[in-house]
Design goal:
12 helices; mainly alpha; MetI-like fold; 241 residues
């Protein structure tokens, strides 16, 4: 009987709320995941060429990192207000804001990962006839993956939290429920939406950690002190022959 009246009593933990509002929670969770996934994916697509430009022309590295850092410091409400004249009240407004916030983390980690590739590995690959594109895709990126994936994990967890701000235009996933619940002091809804945000962040982080584990087997198999692909090792043999 007590559990049936938890909605009336406005308890924090209420099974009746979960049963009655199951569809609303599901819809908000799906929207939250979709916004996060799209924002991080676009952020990665934008950050990668920016990091390559910063590495290729070192004079641009400082400005690129400075601009992305400044964007990250802009308050979310101000960011959305600045983007409003361009996108209007639309999902693109939220996604664009989240993409801009993700850039400072992604660009820095991609650049750091590429810079950490040992110079002798690059030279060995070039000696074997690797062109710039092949060198990047088959040598540098695999070795930079731990740093890139670390940045991707941080950016994803951060985006899960920032997505809730989209509730100001009614496109914030679980943030929509949080905003309504806080305004009406609906405790069960505040707790449920908050817990779901945490669960999404944890699952996303663990999933990306699993992807990193699969893509970087050399980091957990103890196969050598240097992070080198089989092709590069062979290239070094040819170069020193």
């Amino acid at each position: 009987m007590a559990s049936e009246n938890c909605l009336v009593a406005n308890d924090w933990i209420c099974g009746e709320y979960l049963r009655n509002y199951r569809q609303e929670l599901t819809d908000a969770t799906v929207q939250h995941i979709w916004i996060t996934a799209v924002s991080v994916a676009i952020g990665l697509l934008v950050a990668f060429p920016l990091a390559l430009i910063a590495r290729r022309w070192r004079v641009l590295a400082g400005p690129v990192l400075a601009v992305t850092t400044i964007l990250y410091t802009v308050p979310s409400l101000a960011m959305f207000a600045l983007l409003l004249p361009v996108y209007g009240v639309s999902p693109s407004l939220v996604v664009t804001g989240l993409v801009l916030y993700s850039l400072t983390i992604l660009v820095r980690n991609i650049l750091a990962g590429l810079d950490a590739v040992p110079p002798d590995v690059r030279e060995a690959a070039r000696a074997m006839g690797y062109g710039p594109l092949r060198l990047l895709l088959t040598v540098e990126l695999p070795l930079a993956l731990p740093a890139v994936m670390a940045g991707l994990r941080i950016a994803t967890v951060s985006t899960v939290a920032l997505t809730t701000v989209g509730a100001i235009i009614d496109y914030g996933g679980l943030g929509n429920l949080l905003l309504k619940a806080i305004g009406s002091n609906f405790k069960a809804q505040v707790l449920a939406a908050s817990v779901l945000c945490v669960v999404i962040a944890v699952i996303a982080d663990v999933a990306l950690l699993g992807v990193q584990w699969l893509l970087t087997p050399w980091t957990h198999r103890g196969r050598g002190k240097a992070l080198r692909t089989a092709e590069v090792v062979e290239a070094e043999k040819v170069a020193t022959a």
